[in-house]
Design a protein that fits this description.
By secondary structure, the chain is α/β, with parallel strands linked by helices. It contains 22 helices and 22 strands. The protein starts with a strand and ends in a 6-residue tail after the last helix. Helix 7 packs parallel to helix 8. The longest helix has 18 residues. The chain is globular. The strands form 4 sheets. The chain has an 8-stranded mixed β-sheet, sandwiched between helices. Strands 18-19-20-15-21-22 form a 6-stranded mixed β-sheet, with helices on both faces. It has a 4-stranded antiparallel β-sheet with strand order 2-1-4-5. The structure holds iron/sulfur cluster. Iron/sulfur cluster binds next to loops. Iron/sulfur cluster (SF4) binds next to loops.
Length: 608
């Protein structure tokens, strides 16, 4: 249906030209789901924006063709291209909230597309808009057609985006990380919906994602991108059964899963190279365990390694396509928590966090939002309790309240004891001392590190305020040792947070948490903003620290791969309550509660 030939894109920056897409060639057939996968910054989204001609002002397509029905879209005048967008090619983005117009009803936004691209007008267009809302599963579409975006939930907004994209019945839908911002059950519904609509409309789907499990569920064919180039193209079946490129094999090995419990995940050393300037040789060479001399001097071409399976790697030039086993990093060191007795570090009983709803001139309390309502759990030394559930279930709220971070904001009831001390009863120096025993690591390491302080100051600050007895020279020594512990070079001490990558910043956040030798670390989605290969490094680090120091983790996450890999115990939260709790193996193997089963069923998986 559409053919992208040798596409090159350039973006001008202050530091020079960046080439986020180089020599990309792809074909997508009618009715086919084609997945473009890879880690952040590899060029997936820029490829989509280039073929839609929606690049930012600083970007331009510098070579290649995008052929739709024999016509090169890159040569069309902008007015003709505007018709192609919408009528022939639709696009949906990750964040529906920012793509919808907040001051227009959802109905009006769908009608606009219908009137622009079809013959329908007035009442007929409205009727079609209502039909689309119904088709994408919005309840009571006749009433909801008059709603504004803010009146809809995140999942409903994404459904509206799909309705807008499909209202002109395009031949190709580009879905750029369409479910990344959504909970797992909503994600499953949206993916099912896309599959269903695709089957009825015989539409081609270009699915852009970093999530290999989603690719396994949805795609017919897959292209893997690395540093602006396609490095492997195959049928989905073949790609998952026999990934050929060393990068592909490493990505699979880096994924956490229940089968890898107690083992180190393979991690890919180094990071994606800068796309400034020209390359000599293979772009993956610095990170590849199979690299040969030739890899540094000669650029590999995309060669056919088997029927319908091409790969860009010297290992397969003129040879049979035997998949390479991942040799990312010695994934030896199998470990597991020792069988020692696990004392309770944090005991939470019948915990309630109610936010008052105030009204009127005197701000009288007229009701409560019961964010957490009667929750009990234990976190034990050397063990990990995963608190799982969808957004809004109360996971983060309970953790913050337990650590006394919501004092004065919410009405809190029940008991939370850290090493037997009731945290709510502590004040001043006593509370500070207790807080030193329980640290928190957030999802976004950048937001939690002060951008104006050097790493040395950031790490020392925590020690100075929570352990004032430690003298300055001892403090500096401890900070330097911490960097070793989280696998960072001591040069980092004199640098600022913005000088580090996301993964390095998360290491720094962990180092800061460890600085005061806590017995408990609350980790709130610590890897959800990271790429698979960086996530593997952070999970390995957390495991090592737990074995070495016996730290207890309260791990808040919605990622079941991570839960299956890391958690000893699991508590499932829904609407402020724990609906099921137990040992990880048992809860995952034989979930008792219907909600746990729904959650587990909604998780896309690589196999089965
Ligand atoms: Fe590794 Fe060489 Fe293949 Fe690149 S070409 S992936 S460096 S073996």
């Amino acid at each position: 249906m559409i053919r992208i030939e040798d596409l090159d894109t350039v973006i001008d920056t202050e530091r020079g030209e960046i080439r986020p897409v180089e020599g990309v060639t792809l074909e997508i057939a009618a009715g086919e789901t084609f997945a473009l996968v890879g880690e952040s910054g590899c060029g997936k989204s820029v490829t989509a924006l280039s073929l839609m001609r929606l690049l930012p002002d600083s970007g331009r397509v510098s070579g290649g063709r995008v052929v739709l029905d024999g016509q090169d879209l890159l040569q069309l005048p902008e007015t003709a291209m505007r018709d192609v967008r919408g009528s022939r090619i639709g696009i949906i983005f990750q964040e529906p909230a920012t793509s919808l117009n907040p001051v227009m009803t959802v109905g009006r936004q769908i009608i606009e597309v219908i009137e622009r691209h079809t013959e329908l007008r007035g009442a007929a267009a409205l009727a079609r808009a209502i039909e689309w809302l119904e088709r994408v599963g919005i309840p009571e579409p006749k009433r909801r057609v008059n709603d504004y975006p803010f009146q809809m939930s995140g999942g409903q907004k994404q459904r509206v985006m799909i309705a807008i994209a499909l209202a002109a019945e395009p031949d190709l839908l580009i879905a750029d990380e369409p479910t990344t911002a959504l909970d797992v059950t909503i994600q499953a519904q949206i993916l099912d919906l896309l599959q269903e609509l695709q089957a009825t409309h015989k539409m081609a789907l270009l699915l852009i994602t970093h999530d290999l499990a989603i690719v396994a569920k949805m795609a017919h064919r897959v292209a893997l991108m690395y540093a602006g180039q396609v490095v492997e193209v195959a049928t989905a079946q073949d790609f998952f059964a026999r990934p050929l490129h060393p990068y592909a094999a490493n990505l699979f090995a880096a994924l956490p899963a229940s089968g890898k419990r107690g083992q180190r995940l393979a991690s890919i050393p180094g990071s994606v190279p800068s796309l400034l300037g020209n390359f000599t040789g293979c772009r993956f060479a610095d990170r590849c365990a199979d690299a040969m001399a030739q890899c540094r001097t000669a650029t590999p071409e995309l060669v056919s390694a088997a029927a319908d399976h091409a790969v860009r790697c010297h290992l397969y030039e003129g040879r049979d396509a035997t998949p390479r086993a991942s040799r990312a990093v010695a994934s030896a060191a199998a470990t597991s928590a020792s069988a020692r007795e696990h004392e309770v570090v944090l005991a939470v009983r019948d915990y309630r966090v109610w936010f008052p709803i105030r009204k009127g001139l005197f701000q009288r309390t007229v009701g409560h939002v019961k964010a957490v309502d009667g929750v009990s759990f234990d976190v034990r030394a050397g063990r990990t309790l995963a608190l799982v559930g969808e957004s809004g279930s109360g996971k983060t709220t309970v953790a913050k309240a337990v650590l006394q971070l919501l004092r004065g904001v919410a009405e809190i009831g029940g008991s939370a004891q850290l090493h037997g001390a009731e945290l709510a009863d502590l004040h001043g120096a006593e509370l500070r001392a207790a807080r030193a025993g329980a640290q928190i690591v957030f999802q976004d390491p950048f937001a939690s590190l002060n951008p104006r302080m050097r790493v040395q100051e950031i790490l020392e600050e925590g020690v100075a305020s929570l352990c004032p007895d430690i003298a300055a020279p001892e403090r500096s020594k401890r900070v330097a040792q911490l960097l070793d512990k989280v696998g960072m070079h001591r040069d980092a001490l004199t640098r600022y947070p913005h000088e580090f990558s996301g993964g390095q910043r998360q290491r720094l956040a962990i180092a800061r948490a460890l600085a005061v030798e806590p017995r408990l670390i609350v980790a709130d989605e610590p890897t959800s903003a990271l790429d698979v290969s960086v996530q593997a490094q952070i999970l390995n680090l957390l495991l090592e620290l737990q074995e070495e120091l016996g730290v207890a983790y309260l791990f808040i996450t919605h990622n079941f791969g991570v839960v299956e890999y890391l958690a000893h115990d699991i508590a499932v939260m829904k609407d402020g309550r724990i609906v099921e709790a137990g040992a990880a193996g048992q809860l995952l193997g034989e979930p008792q509660h219907a909600y746990t089963r729904t959650l587990l069923k909604a998780v896309p998986r690589l196999a089965g």
